[in-house]
Design a protein that fits this description.
The chain is of the alpha+beta class. The chain folds into two domains: 227 residues, ABC-type transport auxiliary lipoprotein component (Rossmann fold, 3-Layer(aba) Sandwich), CATH 3.40.50.10610; 85 residues, FlgT, C-terminal domain (Thrombin, subunit H, Beta Barrel), CATH 2.40.10.410. It has six helices and 16 strands. The strands form four sheets. The protein has a six-stranded mixed sheet, sandwiched between helices. Strands 11-12-15-14-13-16 form a six-stranded antiparallel β-barrel. A hairpin with a 6-residue loop joins strand 13 and strand 14. Helix 2 packs across helix 6. The N terminus is likely disordered.
Length: 323
């Protein structure tokens, strides 16, 4: 008989109200606190931080509250920025990556518990048999196993690196006659790290997988509860057209560093004339004419590409501004 234990979700934030849907990225969770336990459980180090992140992304995508950036796009930026695993829980580094990605916020997190209550998997001699894949060589397996997983997630502001919200999820699952990772204590997936998938049925059907699911679901619910209250800074863009040879691929000299992202619509203006002070002859105002709009289709750190729409024709040095 299965028994599941849910421990309440704690989410704390002080955030102004805003009802707009947000575009976010989810970093791999930091698991340094439980790394030695993970190595004992699986017989080798496994990146459970990536596994938890992938599970959380699935929950958020399926719910539809957020627009979540694709994993391959995030990995590309991480590689380009020489991001290291030690930076996973660093808010300043996460905010920098978020600006390059052009997202509204970024989620970082930590795994603070992953195993059983006392982080032991057996009684008697040994924690796990690396050769046999069984818990407790020379010992006796418990008649009842309880898996516990605890996570902490934080939503980071992209411009200030401020923590906008913090959520905790903790899940327990107990079952008699099995170990944390399978019937009789067998270790799931010991044949190398590349094939390890925490979303697979092999892991999900273990009590450790069930506990992880509970914790991830709680965190997802906490983040979703804060979605409408996250601040939305008004985008202020001012740049110039650098290449207008193709109206469907107009290049401008501002990009994700300026907060630009795919889907943003900018005004395209052209200088009409200057207004001068009649006494000093100094320019006191510039009058621009609106010639169309530019819908951004591609974004890089210092440039972007967009599709022009309007009665006029875009030219190099035309002005692009926020609407």
């Amino acid at each position: 008989m299965r028994r599941y234990f849910w421990i309440g979700l704690l989410c704390a934030a002080s955030i102004p109200a805003n009802a707009q849907k947000k575009r976010i990225a989810v970093m791999d969770f930091d698991y340094a606190t439980v790394r030695s336990t993970v190595a004992q459980l699986f017989g080798t180090d496994r990146d459970i931080g990536k596994g938890v992140s992938d599970m959380l992304v699935d929950r958020l995508v399926n719910d539809g509250t957020f627009s979540v950036i694709e994993r391959k796009q995030l990995d590309k930026i991480i590689t380009e920025q020489n991001f290291s695993n030690s930076n996973r829980a660093d808010s300043a580094t996460a905010a920098k990556l978020a600006r390059v990605l052009g997202v509204d916020a970024i989620v970082i997190g930590s795994i603070t518990q992953f195993g059983d209550d006392n982080k032991s998997t057996s009684t008697g001699a040994g924690v796990m048999g690396a050769v046999t894949g069984r818990f407790g060589i020379g010992g006796v397996q418990k008649s009842k196993s309880t898996a516990v997983v605890q996570l902490t997630a934080r939503i980071i502001d992209t411009s200030t690196a401020e923590i906008l919200a913090s959520c905790q999820g903790k899940g327990d699952s107990s079952r008699g006659g099995v170990g944390l990772l399978g019937k009789g204590g067998s270790v799931y997936g010991t044949s190398g790290g590349a094939d390890f998938d925490m979303k697979s049925s092999g892991f999900q059907n273990t009590i450790l997988g069930e506990a992880t699911n509970k914790a991830v679901t709680q965190v997802a619910q906490g983040l979703e509860a804060k979605a409408t209250s996250l601040p939305s800074a008004k985008l202020e863009i001012s740049g110039l057209i650098a290449d207008a040879s193709d109206p469907n691929a107009v290049v401008i000299n501002v990009g994700s560093r300026n907060g630009l992202k795919v889907g943003t619509v900018l005004n395209v203006k052209r200088k009409d004339h200057d207004v001068r002070d009649p006494d000093t002859n100094k320019v006191i105002r510039t009058v621009d004419s609106l010639i169309g709009t530019l819908t951004i289709t591609e974004v890089e750190a210092g440039s972007a590409v967009g599709r022009f729409s309007g009665a006029g024709k875009p030219q190099i040095r035309d002005i692009v501004t926020s609407q």
